[in-house]
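Task 17 of the worksheet. Students: predict the tertiary structure of the chain below and write it out as structure tokens. Keep your answer in the requested format; marks are given for formatting as well as content.
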Amino acid sequence: MDILFASSEAHPLIKTGGLADVSGALPRAIKNNGQEIRLVLPAYPAARRNAGSLREVARLDLPGDPAPVRVLQGRLPHTRVRLYLIDSPAHFDRDGGPYSGPDGKDWPDNAERFGLFARAVCALAMDRAGLGWKPHLVHCNDWQTGLVPALLSLEDKRPATLFTIHNLAYQGLFPRADFERLGLPPAWWSMHRLEFFGQLSFIKGGLVFADWLSTVSPTYAKEICTPEFGCGLDGLLKARRDHLAGILNGVDYQIWNPGRDRLIPHTYTARTLRLKLEDKLVLQRTFGLPVRPETPLFGHVGRLVEQKGIDLVLELVPELLQRPMQLVLLGTGQPALEAALREASRRHPTKIGARIGYSEELSHLLEAGSDAFLMPSRFEPCGLNQLYSLRYGTPPVVRRTGGLADSVVDATGPNIKNGTATGFVFDKAEPADLLRAIDRALNLYAQRRIWKQLIDHGMHQDFSWNRSAEAYLGLYAKVLVEHNR
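Model answer:
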């Protein structure tokens, strides 16, 4: 199969979240399975800088850009995957992040930016770039590529399309004026096409027009067909349920592996867990906590937003202070939650350490040095940190939702006895339920033999991208069979 993989970010070129991890790892796993897959991204300054050697291979005349758009070709670093960067300086050559400026506010022209990117992807898919290559299938990811399946639906002899939902809560909504400015077919301004409560919805381009849909865990695929998790799109998704698959994300064990992780001070395996304790001492010192090897240390890293349940943790601070434990947190997000974390850390410096910001090195240290990982998400399409935590011998405490439900086995009595337990699972997004799960973890931590068994079983779980890639290859084949009928 020939596959064009379209994304708005990919590690190690540029990253804001889990989409980048998926887009950096899945194409490599697909390539290693003998398929020809090529990755296309916008040419952000960071992506050009991190891509290494690049050369111009085509120029495209696209609506929305008076100057020709350059197609730069290289390789995704440390892989054999061919990389295309869409170079339109007016749209992508600017300071800030992929979606927002240095002030943290979304770029006001995001509809034009990713509309242009979608047209460039379509040009590559239809071989209008003159590269002598046309994919059998275009795999699109999240709202930034949502217009690709829609635009390809206008083409004769087009490739098949798969649209993956990484987080339905982010939909790419814009005013009607942007719809007009993009020059999209007037008939698409309909609730059955791209209109969503008076706005242009990029994500509906994928949900409505793609041949098949997928999302990043089996449980989330079911959840988004319900009003609770469907973000207003559950009716559409329910109607397309026969063409919706859930495939759990994988982990790149070349990057997230405590036995070879260059970002942690002491590498370790299940047989050398004494070295994990050394990482714990470094983590305590790094976050300014008293160095107490015997004290259970709970960690959290992620976006500081209500989705991630960080407010539940903050509500529990008075109760957690009464328990023999420490807490370290790393992340950025809503200003109110950032301020509350800073204040909790300032008032309780011997119990709580917080860093507002993002650091790849610190996130690795936190996974390695923590005894347990808190992930009380209200919803979680897949989640990656719980998968990292399992490999790092850091049992996760998670809510039973999305990919968390699909990847963590609760440490109940029967599961401990039969050796399948890997973490701690609670049901309701309420502080009391989270606290009970934390108390269960503290109780088991004191039983060192059982805790070691829990760690050992988690570290030997296989959530590699090889397993996920096999599932995607099966789905690609299914989509192509239907498309070619």
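Marker's comment: The CA atoms of residues 192 and 298 lie 46 Å apart. The domain at 274-462 is CATH 3.40.50.2000 (Rossmann fold).
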